[in-house]
Amino acid sequence: MIKAADLPDVIAVFPLPGALLLPRAKLPLHIFEPRYLAMLTDCMKTDGRLIGMIQPRDVPGSAERRLQAIGCAGRLTGFSETEDGRYMITLSGISRFRVREEVQGFQPYRRCAVEWAPFTRDLGHAEQDAAFDRDGFLLLLGRYFQAMNLSTDWGNLKDAEAELLINSLSMLCPFEPEDKQALLEAPSLATRRETLVALMEIALRGGTEGERLQ
């Protein structure tokens, strides 16, 4: 089992609005920009093969795009190349991290000094949610999918473990970047499930900007 002390102090980060990676979940990505192709090449030379997924945030009155304080690192576990030189990769979520500072260098991509200690739970076994009402959750989910014109394999959803179900839906549902960040920062699986339920209920009510979770 990986320990926080085994993780690097500095990692490459991939700022991507609306992209959410969670521990023990998998995120497919399409890599084609030259700077991220360089990041991928460098990543494959390291033992951990870690890339930090993080959302950018706009600074009012400035063209600069800063980074959110919290992201999630994934290990490169899937890799294929297309005929035109692009890559399809899969990141397997390892642990969330908190950004200490951005590290300047000659690389064309961004790197950050990070701390892992606040998220030691991410490195353990799958989380449980004792209060999870699967039947009620799936009823709400069905209404949400119908309203959003989404489809899924309901057989797999009904059989999925609670953590896999909640985290996969948090990653896949078309929420706003601010809402994805709230799901990422949830301190427990139960809190993430409550946040996910609230977001679906807001969407079903035709929620406004002011109703988004902060």
Automatic annotation (TrEMBL):
Note the PROSITE patterns from the entry.
LON_N
Lon N-terminal domain: residues covered: 11-204
Name this protein carries in UniProt? LON peptidase substrate-binding domain-containing protein
Species whose genome carries this gene: Gemmobacter fulvus
